[in-house]
Amino acid sequence: MSAVTASGVRRIADAFAGSDRRAALMPYLMAGFPTVEDSRRIGEACVAAGADLLELGVPYADPLADGPVIHAAATAALEGGATLPAVLDVARALASRAPLVLMCYANMVFAPGADAFVERLADAGACGVIVPDLPLEESAELRDACDARGLALVPLVAPTTTPQRLAAIGRAARGFLYTVSLVGTTGERDSVQESLAAAIARARASTEVPVAVGFGISTPEHARQAADAGADGVIVGTRLVRAAGEGDDAAAAVSSVVGELAAGLARAR
Amino acid sequence: MSVEAAEPPIEHRFGAYGGQFVPETLMPALAELEAAWVEARADERFQATLEGMLRDYGGRPTPLYLAERLSERVQRPVYLKREDLNHTGSHKLNNALGQALLARRMGKTRIIAETGAGQHGVATATVCALLGIECVVYMGVHDTVRQRPNVQRMELLGATVCSVDAGSKTLKEATSAAIRDWVANVQSTHYVIGSAVGPAPYPALVRDLQRVIGEEARAQLLERERRLPSRVVACVGGGSNAIGIFAPFIDERGVELIGVEAAGEGLQSGRHGAPLTVGGRPGILHGSRSAVMQDAEGQIMQAHSISAGLDYPGAGPQHAFLRDTGRARYVAVTDQEAVAAFRELSRLEGIIPALETAHALAWVLAQADGELDLVCLSGRGDKDLAEVLGGDHA
């Protein structure tokens, strides 16, 4: 078991280190949206179009950190029958293609108990989990459970995070440090924050794991700016979830946007 | 912090319940709020301002009324703590006024709130008008219909009412929408949460601000009857009027504490708002761990109650703790029983209670035993006339 269990955290580290882009590209997709089968195909298309890692959202009825696009996608996914077993099947199918991190709200983590939940994640081949409503103060039990199986509990830091908190969160970070680029919920914005470079430098100084930036990153230009600002990874969610909800071929629509983002992060030759 | 050492703690947890399950963005704001409350609570000038406004603007102390015809009906004295006579018609003003003064002290220029029945929204809109602070109130679309007069009131008071069209379109979604607004505007904005729910320090803060209900009632009753009540009864949605009237009696072991939840169409139907009564695995909703209606996977379920203020799948964490320790008992009353009590109190006492409050009254009316009941008459029922007397909506 230990050979397998150590691999979650290591696969994430290898994906950041091994990315041939200026920053690792991590698309977010909502499991079960527009359908369970579509979400699996979208994940596969993301990897084919250049994703280094995948973030798979578990649909939740009350997503406090998400803006209207992801909220609506979660609602649609739940109406379409995206139960946790179905979500974990999608995770299992995708985890062999790229390191996969689940994003899941706290009540779903603790409903079966932290240990049992992490066991199911490990069984599905996930490398880690992001819980957007689980701040450091509430996270010890889940982090212990993740550590015991070599999975990463990836914490978030925000522009409002104080230096003292940042230091503590950075120390507790596993996998990568999810740096929220703005004060707000997930969603597309016109531009990235001018203060992003400072935020990334601050995050980097707090931790030994890679720093990935998310929230409000939606265009190749934004992705490039995040890389310029020093990010090790770029997370794009709402833009892709929107693409998944448009047109007849969700996977093709998402793939095309991921391809543009990947090109935006290409190293100069 | 030795200055505050003598003060009661601002609890983050009540046994296994409570906590702070919110996005990281909000964590510093919660710490700021807690520090501000610790400071303001010990500041005599702040307390004098709050007390003065509760008295001169709000109408406190509210009367304690011996409801004689009701007492005759149930064959024991029943005292009503008349929070319906507060300005704006409910206990909600106590909390809204305290939090708005705190927001002003923190230098916040914008206030947001969630509301179910609209009573908390009206109270918040009122104090924002009074203090000249911008106010945005989130309310489920379904509630904007069934509590229309309160929407009109809030708008007249200058607040912006945002109707929330997600999920159950009631209090749960209104609260989620308010939290999302707060995440986006946390630097300028204070979130005046309306019940004893949410992440720490809110459950303790709201209880501290509502404790005045119980303090007054206790003193009034001692003066009138030279004794404590045998029972204190209050309705529980999130549970702020209940925790406010319970608080000074928690250490009085001879006083039974009864929280009355909404049984909706019946506990067996699943269409209710009674997570404390039903029990089951605790869950996390709106920032704290408490009694929650949820499915096996941890999805929050939709509540149901004819009363918009009790139509909520969670409850304050201190109530869950009081239940588990056996200090308080939680029961539930159906829509039908609440409507009957709404009509009965109107005829017996000339007091039209809020539908929320009618749940507590229905339970009291149904009890054959008891010596002396103290009931929190948490709000007036004018807002509910259309819902009870019939209208053009379901």
Structural account:
The complex is a heterodimer of chains A (269) and B (394). Chain A is α/β, with parallel strands linked by helices and 269 residues long. Chain A has a single domain (8-264), classed as TIM Barrel (Alpha-Beta Barrel). Chain A contains 13 helices and nine strands. The model of chain A is unreliable at 1-5 (pLDDT under 50). Chain B is an alpha/beta fold and 394 residues long. In chain B, the strands form four sheets. Chain B has a six-stranded mixed sheet with strand order 3-4-14-9-10-13, sandwiched between helices. The longest helix of chain B is centred in the middle third of the chain and has 24 residues, at 202-225. Chain B is globular and about 55 Å long. The termini of chain B are far apart. Mean pLDDT of chain B is 95; it is low at 1-5. Chains A and B meet through helix 4, helix 6 and strand 6 of A and helix 1, helix 8 and strand 11 of B.
Q: In a nutshell, what does this entry contain?
A:
The complex is a heterodimer of chains A (269) and B (394). Chain A contains 13 helices and nine strands.
Radius of gyration of chain B: 19 Å
Spatial strand arrangement across the major sheet of chain B: 3-4-14-9-10-13
**Taking Cα atoms only, what radius of gyration of chain A do you get, to the nearest Å?**
17 Å
Number of helical elements of chain B = 15
Proportion of residues in helical segments of chain A: 40-55%
Low-confidence stretches of chain B: 1-5
Biggest interface found: A-B, 39 and 37 residues
Shape of chain B: globular
Strand order of the largest sheet of chain A: 5-4-3-2-1-9-8-7-6
Structural class of chain B: alpha/beta
Based on the coordinates given, report the CATH architecture of chain A: Alpha-Beta Barrel
Shape of chain A: globular
Give me the CATH fold name of chain A: TIM Barrel
Characterize the biggest β-sheet of chain B.
6 strands, mixed
- State the low-pLDDT regions of chain A, or none: 1-5
Major beta-sheet overview of chain A: 9 strands, parallel
